Amino acid sequence: MSDLTNPVEPFLRSDRMPHIWCPGCGIGTTVNCFARALIESKIDLEHLALVSGIGCTGRVAGYVKLDSFHTTHGRAIPFATGLKLANPKLNVVVYSGDGDLSAIGGNHLIHAARRNIDLKVICVNNLIYAMTGGQTAPTTPGHAITSTSPYGTCEPAFNLPHLVEAAGAVYVARWTTFHVRQLARSIAEAFQKKGFSFIEVISPCPTLYQRRNKLGDGLDTMKYYKEKSKVRHGAPTSEAGLTMTGEIVVGKFVDRDRPDYQTLVRAQLAESLGDRFVEQAEMVCS
Amino acid sequence: MAKGRVSIVVERCKACGFCVEFCPTKVLALSSAFNSKGYHPPHVVHPEKCSGCDLCGMYCPDFAIYGTKVKTVGAQEVDDES
Ligand SMILES: Cc1ncc(C[n+]2csc(CCOP(=O)(O)OP(=O)(O)O)c2C)c(N)n1
Ligand code: SF4
Ligand SMILES: [Mg+2]
């Protein structure tokens, strides 16, 4: 009998296990799906970089055995943009939380989508700022109790697929941590796209979100995802808003093509400089 | 003979129960034993039912369990690494 190991093990910094994520937290499950997507799509790991912001999800950068960068809060996309522009051959993945990407980093999110920077963004949405104690995030659904809204949240929430579609993303999908195979497939699909791809994964934070809202533990939340999710590929993202206990619309919402930022830069320079425009042959960084 | 086999890394488990709930053939149950952190890891109750689909591995947030396919060559069991 040969000595088999977990197929995700080669993608992990095993010496850092067990990780800090709580029992029933969904972040680790999303990492499994990410690793399977890397295996399936045979991505060259030498030309792959993963960038995270700050938060429980931001910890992913420290646990994957890849070139990875744990950046400052909200700035994963700017760092990733720099990486991609300096070394266009890299596949650059941004792996971060809903708060990091859509609150403090919300400005970068919409402008990277608008400019169609070739990034694969995986947003683990646990509807809260988890790492700092469960404060209301732009994604927290109405009425949810959080540490900053002890009588319930009254702010309208961002519907992230709708936001990034409107801003210009070329690939937009949403799954939950229950949809492991679909999520892996979506991530693999995003690697085939050139341009700004955004995959939202709804994920339990039993410690801070589910507990305060009396929604049970991680497993109860997974059962809720199983029961209340509706796969609607191509659904208008305007209909994909989330509520505390209602239906969760999942699926691939947007898959379209338009020139990415670097293609636009080259086209613009060629148009205005004519013969004086010389394409740089080989990038200096490798 | 079982088509698959489950491997469990007991010390990594935090007993979320995802693998037990979502194993399509109900191979697993949480055991009454503790690991050194005080969690009850899963154990195999129906080894013959394992298809090696590795859904337990995909669900496990702690990278503590995985399934592998087993091929039968003659009377011998061989792990399938393909
Ligand atoms: C500039 C700055 N402001 C605030 C913080 C505190 N902070 C750390 S993580 C975080 C929120 C993270 O939320 P999210 O991105 O949803 O990640 P989660 O922990 O939920 O996975 C905040 C506000 C910080 N680290 N830096
Ligand atoms: S606080 Fe929430 S998001 Fe953070 S590790 Fe725990 S369960 Fe996961
Ligand atoms: Mg969050």
Describe this protein's structure.
The complex is a heterodimer of chains A (286) and B (82). The model of chain A has no long low-confidence stretch (mean pLDDT 96). By secondary structure, chain A is of the alpha/beta class. Chain A has ten helices and eight strands. Chain A starts with 26 loop residues before the first helix and ends in a 13-residue tail after the last helix. Chain A has one domain: Thiamin diphosphate (ThDP)-binding fold, Pyr/PP domains (Rossmann fold, 3-Layer(aba) Sandwich), CATH 3.40.50. An eight-stranded mixed sheet of chain A has the order 2-1-3-4-6-5-8-7, sandwiched between helices. Chain A has helices spanning 27-40, 60-63, 76-86, 98-104, 106-115, 160-167, 180-191, 206-210, 218-228, 261-273, and strands spanning 48-52, 67-70, 91-97, 120-125, 171-176, 197-202, 229-231, 248-255. Chain B starts with a strand and ends with a strand. Chain B has one domain: Alpha-Beta Plaits, CATH 3.30.70. A three-stranded antiparallel sheet of chain B has the order 1-4-5. A two-stranded antiparallel ribbon of chain B has the order 2-3. In chain B, a hairpin with a 2-residue loop joins β4 and β5. The longest helix of chain B has 5 residues, at 18-22. With 82 residues, chain B is α+β, with helices and mostly antiparallel strands. The A-B interface holds A 1-2, 4, 6-9, 12, 17-19, 21-29, 31-33, 36, 177-178, 180-181, 184, 217-219, 222-223 and B 7, 9, 11-12, 14-18, 21-22, 37, 39, 54-55, 57-63, 66, 68, 77-79, 81. Bound molecules: thiamine diphosphate, iron/sulfur cluster and magnesium ion. Magnesium ion (MG) binds at residues 55, 97-99, 126, 128-130, 137 of chain A. Residues 21-22, 25, 27, 56, 126, 130-131, 205-208 of chain A line the site of iron/sulfur cluster (SF4).
